[in-house]
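Now for a typical sample entry:
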Amino acid sequence: MEDKKYIRFQWFAVSAGVIILVIKFLAFHITGSNAILSDALESIINVVAGSFALYSLILAAKPKDTDHPYGHGKIEFISSGIEGTLILLAGISIVLKSVHDLILPHQVVKLDLGLYLAAGAGLINYILGWITEYYGKKNNSPTMAASGKHLKSDGYTSLGLIIGLSVVLLTGFIWIDSVIAIGFGAYIGIVGLKEVRKSVAGIMDEADFELLRDLVTHLNKKRNQNWIDIHNFRAQKFGKGIHIDCHITVPYYLTVEQAHEEIDAMENLVKEHYPHGVEMFIHTDPCTPNSCRICSKSNCDARQSELQERIEWNLENVLQNQKHQ
């Protein structure tokens, strides 16, 4: 149900992007401004990337199957990578055209009307981007988050465009138009490069230390006495879903059923914190006599030494493939 709601919203975002695109090219047609053209070219990327993002959301919402045992969520990383590449190419194109027109300037007219049109389109883009990014983060969707950031960056560039062209309008220095466009092109290219970098990191399963730190902190705060330690802890993102592998050390005398209950309790604790598509594979390890010194379990008849120190879980000790000492 949630997936359908976000897909409908993405449909709306793409439709709004087409309208904004028309407004910006109308402003360019009226004024002939390079800066406005740069803004309009970025809107083409918005529509193309938004359309692919819509497709990726539809595909990512499909359930797991035999061919895709981890689901289809990684298509979202591909989507954000394509969007980042398009943004980067748009930035490079804007810079090249603006440099050409800086050397061979042309006339810019009716900037006042162009400014009004650009301001309206930029405001709509920013509001739409803020909402899209909010839902992307809420739903743990890299596609929607990337699309929202792109739309917001378009809003920022529109603001800079308005300020810069106002200077052109007041001073009459046409060359400022091309300088502004070069600045926008460079900024847009950097945004695209960052998105490409993030998408490659997701496809390559690069460790997300922010996610890992948040998970470990949450588990450490709410750990129970039977969880002596967790180690060999790993987490991967598959679109909005998270797959977690780890080992948990529990008292050796627990039955298989009791150990499974501890695993279920830990899994439910993670799902409370990340309600969207968490999957955990947890391996149980029995405690050893050395574990007693860090075990805070009370009323343990098998205890062989007193508790000396309760080790707080952090990235340094949970990522290691060994029991805590």
